[in-house]
Specification:
Low-confidence stretches: 2-23
CATH topology of the largest domain: Jelly Rolls
Number of helices: 2
CATH class of the largest domain: Mainly Beta
Largest sheet: 8 strands, antiparallel
Radius of gyration: 29 Å
CATH architecture of the largest domain: Sandwich
Shape: elongated
Order of helices and strands: HEEEEEEEEEEEEEEEEEHEEEEEEEE
Strand content: 35-45%
Number of domains: 2
Distance between the termini: 72 Å
CATH superfamily of the largest domain: Exo-inulinase, domain 1
């Protein structure tokens, strides 16, 4: 979590009573110690380092901090030792020199073993997507704190589904899928940020929609911001170690909606012309197409399965409206369809007419 001054908190606490600020969209108050804690699940034994895929951007490979800086753009003041980048107390947060939006992020971290502190003072740091949306880093092995502030929690908003923490000193991993919020041209929120998190290979955040940027004792409302902002790692005064940090930029999310039509131009054929294609077509013994007309539409019954609408791109070329199957008809001298070639799943087959219907 990001620290605030005591003065600010006192002033804020006095002002909240009459401010009319929106309540947390949860039945629990933020950081409520009475909030049920996730069950403990022991992760599998750590394996070798998760090798980055070919399209990954390497943010830290154990050698240097060339991809990182302070918020002021100065060289990062954390240490590099034994292949890890180590938070240095009082040196400040570090952030990537580049900005990122939708990403798949892999990061490994280890809490120090010598700390005797408890709760939020035990191996505390944080992974901030876009510098605003925190996945908490904390030694939560046999340690108690508020549920929405333990390791792998979306800070102040969502506890993890389970506590998958390893003991301090052992390497742990986060695999994070982050979808940035979307804003319209006027700055109004269209879609909230979403996070999916695997902690040590265990699903702990399942595509949750964030209420806004994460914060201490409260959450902030969404305000329009750039589509790409730096990834930030927090200095919370504890020498947490990080290694093997890489990410992949993700394409725009696929919007659910009606299937896209064919990229080719669709033409309308008169019903008497559509009747030329109506009939039964044999592909091989026991495998048939049956094409029927209903009004101004043609339908193909594919191997006895459900019907599929087919549309014309010319008098010989057709395709199924909801799939990548195309059909090319051979017309006889009388104009009637005699057969057609179709492509499905990378193979080509021929269907020959055997009876008119």
């Amino acid at each position: 979590m990001l620290l605030k001054s005591v003065q600010f908190i006192l002033i804020g606490a006095i002002g909240l009573a009459g401010s009319g600020l929106a309540q947390s969209p949860s039945t629990w108050k933020i950081h409520d110690m009475k909030r049920p804690h996730p069950a403990v699940v022991m992760p599998g034994q750590p394996d070798r380092l998760a090798a980055p895929p070919s399209d990954a951007v390497i943010l830290f490979d154990g050698k240097d901090l060339s991809q990182w800086s302070t918020a002021q753009g100065e060289p990062a003041k954390w240490k590099v030792e034994n292949g890890s980048m180590v938070a240095v107390k009082g040196s400040g947060n570090v952030q990537t020199k580049s900005g990122w939006g939708d990403v798949q992020l892999h990061i490994e971290w280890a809490a120090p073993t010598l700390e005797q502190d408890q709760g939020q003072d035990r191996g505390n740091s944080g992974v901030y997507l876009m510098g605003l949306y925190e996945v908490q880093v904390l030694d939560s092995y046999q340690s108690q704190t508020y549920a929405d502030g333990q390791a792998a929690g979306i800070y102040g908003q969502f506890p993890p589904l389970v506590n998958a923490s390893r003991p301090p000193g052992e390497w742990q991993s986060y695999d994070i899928v982050f979808r940035r919020p979307r804003f319209d041209g006027g700055g109004s929120l269209l879609r909230p940020a979403r996070l999916t998190v695997l902690h040590n290979g265990i699903l702990v955040q399942d595509n949750v929609a964030l209420w806004g940027p994460t914060n201490w004792l409260e959450y902030d409302p969404y305000n329009a911001h750039p589509d790409k902002l730096p990834l930030l790692l927090q200095d919370h005064g504890s020498p947490v170690r990080f290694r093997n940090i890489w990410l992949r930029e993700l394409p725009e999310p696929v919007e659910l909606g009606p299937p896209a039509g064919s990229a080719e131009k669709v033409i309308a054929l008169a019903p008497n012309l559509l009747d030329r294609y109506v009939g039964r077509y044999e592909v091989s013994p026991g495998r048939y197409f049956t094409i029927t007309r209903e009004g101004e539409k043609l339908f193909a019954n594919f191997y006895g399965a459900r019907r599929f609408e087919i549309v014309a791109h010319s008098e010989r070329e057709f395709s199924m409206t909801r799939s990548g199957v195309d059909l090319k008809f051979d017309l006889g001298s009388d104009g009637q369809a005699q057969s057609f070639v179709f492509h499905i799943g990378g193979r080509q087959e021929v269907a020959k007419r055997v009876a008119l219907e």
